[in-house]
Amino acid sequence: MFKSKFVSQFPPSLTVAAIGLCALIGCNKAAAPPAFAMPPAAVTVATAVSGEAPAYLDEIGTCTARQYVSITPRVTGAITEILFKDGVEVHAGDPLFTIDTRPYQATLDQAIADQKRNSAAVDLAQSEWDRMKKLLSTNAISQDDYDKMKGAALQADAQFAGSNAAVENARLNLEYCHISSPIDGRAGQRLVDIGNVVMANNGSLLVIQTLDPIYADFTCVESDLPAVQEHAKSGTLSVQVLLPSDTGEGRKGDLTFIDTQVQDQAGRVKLRATVNNPDRHFWPGQFINVRLILSVDKNAVLVPASVTQIGQAGPYVYVVNAQSTAEIRPVKLGQRQGDSVVILEGLKPGENVVNSGTTMVIPGMPVNVINAAASPATTQPTTAPSSATADAGGHS
User: 43: Cβ–Cβ under 8 A, 6 or more apart, which residues?
Assistant: First the structure.
């Protein structure tokens, strides 16, 4: 009675609609799809390896000639010959200039003549003195006459010695008329022409520079000086020198000089390396990149630099474990070694780290390693200077 009375209170069409709606809701609930699950991130991995890695300082410097000689005339006169071409390689003893020799030859001839005259005077004075010695022993002459003759003989000897010095001086001046190279090196541009009158010890005729070996001059900050001094105690430190346009490891050299003081205001210390330069690759005055090798770690942990990430807490990498699950691993970075970077703390050789695909990696979730074999890190350390270092200009 109650059921039929309750139903009869609603229109038949509304009752049918309500029943259909309930059936529809019940059917949709039964057909709901399962919850969505993200697939594993596709990544490639690299394997941390053990290899050699130098600790270094990267600096900018300039090339300087090992020897720099400005040719200055020692006598006055007109240039009569130029015996070289501008820019040629010269050797010690090669003739360069000739100054008019005629007045100096005449001076030498006069000095030789005076030398001969004084030599004859010495012989005469010595003979007379010898006679006076015999006469004095027989009391045939006075002591005063003997002393005068002795003085004349000694004076003649002195004049002869003076004439010898004059001859040597005249001979030297004549030799100075023939100017030759004092060193092996490259001649610059001559600064005089034939016919120019040059003055003794005044002005430069030519500059010659030794280019092989060549100096690489650079500086380091004073805070790095103790490390340089400490490592230098164990032996000569090596350097790598490159021009800005060079590629590869550069030219090797040795650190040969550490200055004795810190530069005022700049707070830097001058260093100098010596580099072989037989092909004249480096030129005086050129800017160069210099890498000073302080030490070499033969068991450094290396990974490709691309695997490292930077977070709020510092650098980290994604490590893929044996279950193909990615985990965040904080690391301490060392210096760049070419395309690789040294990991000072946080990784061991043989561990796999995510190399690409990091944007889709979720810590603690599985990953899909798509490279067939783990890519090892670069094992050959690059010691060439580079601006891309983990701590530019520093050392680990």
Answer: 318, 320, 326, 354, 355, 356, 357, 358, 360, 361, 367, 368, 369, 370
